[in-house]
Automatic annotation (TrEMBL):
<feature type="active site">
    <location>
        <position position="35"/>
    </location>
</feature>
<feature type="signal peptide">
    <location>
        <begin position="1"/>
        <end position="23"/>
    </location>
</feature>
<dbReference type="GO" id="GO:0033744">
    <property type="term" value="F:L-methionine:thioredoxin-disulfide S-oxidoreductase activity"/>
</dbReference>
<dbReference type="Pfam" id="PF01625">
    <property type="entry name" value="PMSR"/>
</dbReference>
<dbReference type="InterPro" id="IPR036509">
    <property type="entry name" value="Met_Sox_Rdtase_MsrA_sf"/>
</dbReference>
<feature type="domain" description="Peptide methionine sulphoxide reductase MsrA">
    <location>
        <begin position="28"/>
        <end position="170"/>
    </location>
</feature>
<comment type="similarity">
    <text>Belongs to the MsrA Met sulfoxide reductase family.</text>
</comment>
<keyword id="KW-0560">Oxidoreductase</keyword>
<comment type="function">
    <text>Has an important function as a repair enzyme for proteins that have been inactivated by oxidation. Catalyzes the reversible oxidation-reduction of methionine sulfoxide in proteins to methionine.</text>
</comment>
<dbReference type="GO" id="GO:0008113">
    <property type="term" value="F:peptide-methionine (S)-S-oxide reductase activity"/>
</dbReference>
<protein>
    <recommendedName>
        <fullName>Peptide methionine sulfoxide reductase MsrA</fullName>
        <ecNumber>1.8.4.11</ecNumber>
    </recommendedName>
</protein>
<keyword id="KW-0732">Signal</keyword>
<dbReference type="InterPro" id="IPR002569">
    <property type="entry name" value="Met_Sox_Rdtase_MsrA_dom"/>
</dbReference>
Amino acid sequence: MIKNKLALAVAIVGALGMTGAQGAETATAIFAGGCFWSIESDFDHAPGVISTTSGYIGGHVDNPSYEQVVTETTGHREAVKIVYDPTVTSYDKLVDTFFHLIDPIETRGQFCDYGESYTTAIYAGTDAELKVAEAGKEATAAALGKPVATIVAMAPTFWPAEDYHQDFWKGSEMLQNGLTRAQHYARYRVGCGKNGQVEAIWGKDAFKGLDGHA
């Protein structure tokens, strides 16, 4: 039944010919999966992804700053807006990949980051995308045998984060701690334990859909 629901939802997206499209050649997807540095890094390794933008979504403050969001008083989540080529990948594939690079059952945040801003969500741009995301959530719950904490909702305004957060994982700028942004991110990724926890949850399917681990 779950597979049938997912197939039907995917068929609806295909029949409508739109997946949050910005134009004839690109489409968008928005995922909140904990620290946006990591989600951006992950999806930069996904075939068909053209660009990624870190930002904030879901809160009650317009154009919030990082300093505001981390107080956990604005209601925002850290998220990544993805522009992709629908002739190379698809919305349902990106949804499936997303679930395989997070801890879907965690309610408090992700890995070493806790608070509402680090909780997981999929923000759909169309009713068809919403159905695909809901079907993906059901399939994930069935695969893990546990309830999935990830919220599925229509997308409110996405606010791009500050420039210094964009492409943080590969930045060459030197920080005050004597490390480049890329070096700082690599240390954070290991210290936060994301790779190990995702692999413990998903086994050989961890980071499914990526061109190697980020």
